Amino acid sequence: MVKNGNYVGVVSRLGSNGEGIVKTEDCTVFVPYALPQEKIKYKVLKIKKNVAFGKVIEVCTPAEERIRPKCPVYEKCGGCQLQHLKYKLQLKLKSQIVKDCLSKIAFVDYDVPSAIRSDLEYGYRNKLQLPVRAGEFGCEIGFFAQNSHRIVPVTGCPIQPEWCNRIIAVIRDYIRRFSIPVYNEETGTGLVRHVVVRDVDGKLLVTIVINGRELPHSAALIEDLKSDFKQFSLFLNINERNDNVILTDEYVCLYGRKNVTSSDLGIKFEIGPGSFMQVNDGVRRKLYQDALKAAEITPDTTVIDAYSGAGMLTAIFASKAKKSIGIEIVKEAVECADDLKIRNGLEDRMENINAPCEEALPEVLENARKNGDDCVLVLDPPRQGVDEKLIDCIKETLPDRILYISCSPQTLARDVGLLTGTLVRDGDKLIKSDGNGKYELVSVQPYDMFPQTKHVETLVCLSKKSEKHISIDVEFGESDGQISLKKLQKELNEQKLKKKTTYKDIQKWVEENYGFKVHTAYIAEVKRDLGLPMYDAPNAVEELKRPRSHPTAEMSDAIKAALKHFEII
Question: What would the DSSP string read from start to end of 188-242?
């Protein structure tokens, strides 16, 4: 195989970036925009040891899963990688990406379910971010081509809502009409660098990133925006740096409100031009709802939210738990979280700490445990994953359960391996271990936060392993009344200690086998009727003060079947 050579091959599967993989005698070839089982003609662009990278010249036999991309510049723009693949297969691919990362990086074999779908396959993004550059024909507004800073000019984008098209048209017309100088990366000259827009419930926060302090004819731009949009604010972001950083902390509001108000899962919050927010509103809400369920919150639960940012998740948990404590190193973010706490009347149930997570976590856990609280740790780190010091801290302090929200399957798998013990550090390297860690993997669920792209969001649940001990007081030997050590050893080898069955286990079994959900109160009632031992909940008296519904005959039968399955009856 040689560089720039043309070859014919059959795609065996998709890689983690959505590219087709062709196996040859010499090497593995990664070819973007090719699908499994397709026979393709491809050109080799780069060779590195036993790996090569190519591009499709011709699809000889298209796969059934192949569809026509909606975007006219799909293969030129670097934003999307999967528009040529039916959406149902995109969801399976993202599940496979997470599964492969867990297997290859963490040495954890887990049957990962299909990714939770987005209600919107296109037009789902609430944020637009476009570079503006001086091009051959003057002002160019678009996206960077993959692995380059070459602008692919666009008039719109299928994964953006319709307002994106109008924003681009208005700003391009304004720049051309007044001959506004646009940024040149090579010389560091020019004024307009980027356009960044956030949509919050139909209210647009429009930011023009400039290499200077003032925007000429800004009043005319405001009037142009008024003709197309009813609710918007216009900001300048001052960025005179000579690097690739898009936004600085310096904003100037030229028109409209500095912040807009919204709500999520009952929590009211304010969003400014620089605030972080997941780009897919529908999937974000699904993810947060599932995180609440997975936390298994009781009246005695303390939630500790590491990497808490502006406190949105902290507040959501605070509305349900005994207490929710956010830990964040960025002071400005903690101040926003404090405002959020006051805005939602959570002063008694929400606390925000400005400190490195590994420094604050031990004391927070110690205080919660003094009160007998059940402790849940939420991890929502940036793409690089959980800091090594925090991983070590978690392994020492041992919160009861961990919820890990990740936008990077690779770093997620690494951290899961370190927590479950399938990976250990050996200097600067990570090596395979025996899996004898303090945590076990309970569940993995991917979410398609970014349809048409290779990116995937994942929620992982980990639970602290229970330490079980057996005390046996016997005489060993072979005579009457004595137990054979050999026989005992054989019996112990043949038997496994049964894991304690939880209400969650019963709920899951019923749903999988009967197709409906049952409340924990129904399970408790069936167990009570059967004379099974019950946990005396501290809030039981309060529950009895309220009218209580009862399980139907069908529900009772299903719960009894589950109890038999788990050998409780």
Answer: TB-SEEEEEEEEETTEEEEEEEESSS--TTHHHHHHHHHHH-SSEEEEEEE---S
Q: Are 293 and 504 in contact (CB under 8 A)?
A: no
73-83 pLDDT per residue, tens: 999 988 999 99
Which one has a higher pLDDT value, 474 or 319?
Answer: 319
Confidence of residue 121 (pLDDT cuts 50, 70, 90): very high
* CA–CA dist 74, 269 (Å, integer): 36
Please state which of the four CATH numbers 2.40.160.20, 3.40.50.150, 2.40.50.1070, 2.60.120.260 is assigned to the domain occupying 127-264.
2.40.50.1070
Question: For residues 291 and 403, what is the distance between their CA atoms, to the nearest angstrom?
Answer: 7
Fold of 1-65: OB fold (Dihydrolipoamide Acetyltransferase, E2P) (2.40.50)
Task: Give CA angle at 278 (259, 250), nearest 5°.
Answer: 40
Find, among 331, 450, 430, 335, the residue nearest to 385 by Cα: 430
CB-based contact 263:343 (threshold 8 Å): no
d(CA 28, CA 49): 10
Nearest to 555 by CA among 503, 519, 501: 519
414-427 pLDDT, tens digit each: 999 999 999 999 88
Cα–Cα nearest to 195, from 268, 246, 255:
246
Assigned token pair, 27? 């090497």
Beta bridge partners of 184: 189
State which amino acid sits at residue 343. R
Measure the CA–CA gap between 279 and 265, rounded to whole angstroms: 16
Which of 163, 451, 164 shows the shortest CA–CA distance to 280? 451
Which tokens belong to 255? 């028109």
How far apart CA 13 and CA 447 sit, in angstroms, is 21
**What whole-number distance in Å separates Cα of residue 520 and Cα of residue 435?**
32
Q: Which of 71, 393, 407, 461 is catalytic?
A: 407
Q: Is 407 a catalytic residue?
A: yes
With CA atoms as reference, report the closest residue to 370 among 381, 362, 382, 378: 362
CA distance 20 to 54: 10
**pTM over 0.85, yes/no:** no
Mark residue 366 as left, alpha or beta (left: phi above 0; alpha: psi -120 to 50; beta: remaining): alpha
Task: Please answer whether residues 176 and 138 qualify as being in contact, where contact means their C-beta atoms are separated by less than 8 angstroms.
Answer: yes
Is beta strand 51-61 parallel, antiparallel or unpaired with respect to 28-31? parallel
Are 130 and 143 in contact by the 8 Å Cβ rule? The answer is: yes
Bridging pattern class, strands 350-354 and 323-328: parallel
- Edge-to-edge order in the sheet of strand 457-464: 350-354, 323-328, 301-306, 374-379, 401-406, 457-464, 439-447
Residues of the chain with CATH 2.40.50.1070: 127-264
pLDDT tens digits along 85-99: 999 999 999 999 999
Are 135 and 126 in contact by the 8 Å Cβ rule? The answer is no
Which part of the chain has CATH 2.40.50.140? 1-65
- What would the mean pLDDT of 209-223 be, rounded to a whole number? 97
